[in-house]
Amino acid sequence: MTSIFFQALAEPDFHDFRNEVKEVFSIAIAEHFGLSRDGNFFEDDDIDGMLRDPKSAVYAIYVDGRRAGGVALHIDPESLRNRMDLFYFYPGFHNQGLGGRVWKMIEEMYPETVVWELFTPYFEKRNIHFYVNKCGFRIVEFFCRHHADPAVKQQPEPFHNEYFRFEKQMKV
Questions:
Q1: Residue-number span of the structural domain to which 115 is assigned
Q2: In the structure, what pLDDT confidence band is assigned to residue 52 with cuts at 50, 70 and 90?
Q3: How far apart are CA 58 and CA 78, in angstroms?
Q4: What is the CATH number of the domain that holds 82?
Q5: Exposure letters 54-82 (e unless 16+ CB within 10 A, then b)
Q6: Worst-scoring range by mean pLDDT, 24-28, 39-43, 110-114?
Q7: How many CB atoms lie within 10 A of CB 162?
Q8: Which of 132, 135, 155, 167 is the most buried (most CB within 10 A)?
Q9: How distant is the alpha carbon of residue 25 from its chain centre?
Q10: What is the pLDDT, as a whole number, of residue 30?
Q11: Any long-range contacts for 96-103 (C-beta under 8 Å, 24+ apart)?
């Protein structure tokens, strides 16, 4: 069986993590919108804000000893409402059932979580399927120009402004 483990990352590792996130996420945006993959679709400050948050837990994901992706979590020990901010695998690790195993491991790492929350763009059908049908999340909100997220500065590109908010109730 394939072995999976997490390696906690710290500030010196964030530059590489940020660049990996931008590269992997840009693939889907470029393919969906017919844009060049060398476009800069994400602001460094946005990603750095997630990574440097005092409540962040950032991990590299290894599969059979090879770095396969990463995850950035926001862990709130007071409210026990935790959030997955970033989650990615390099394309060579897609469609192998790894995402579900990794998600189960994350849930086991934070067993006191009451609610998990995450966001994903509207066009990422594969991710939406994964979160709803494989991981048990529910879509609880859709942000768009008619219902903008007050916490996010609106951008001209729809992939920045149109996305779902998901929740998974763990405990009542």
A1: 4-169
A2: very high
A3: 19
A4: 3.40.630.30
A5: eebbbbbbbbeeeebbbbbbbbeeeeeeb
A6: 39-43
A7: 16
A8: 135
A9: 10
A10: 74
A11: 96/2, 98/2, 98/4, 98/63, 98/68, 99/130, 99/134, 100/130, 100/134, 100/135, 101/2, 101/4, 102/4, 102/61, 102/71, 103/134, 103/135
> Tokens 């500065």, residue?
153
Range 17-24 contact pairs with CB under 8 angstroms and sequence separation of 24 or more: 17/51, 17/58, 17/60, 17/70, 17/72, 18/44, 18/47, 18/48, 18/51, 20/69, 20/70, 20/88, 20/90, 21/47, 21/70, 21/86, 21/88, 22/47, 24/69, 24/88, 24/89, 24/90, 24/91
Q: Two tokens at 46?
A: 């946005």
Quick: pLDDT tens for 62-108.
999 999 999 999 999 999 999 999 999 998 888 888 999 999 999 99
Q: How many domains does the chain have?
A: 1
pLDDT in tens, 105-164: 999 999 999 999 999 888 888 899 999 999 999 999 987 776 666 566 655 555 556 778
Tokens of residue 129, six digits: 């399927």
SS percent in the chain: helix, strand, coil, step 5: 35, 30, 35
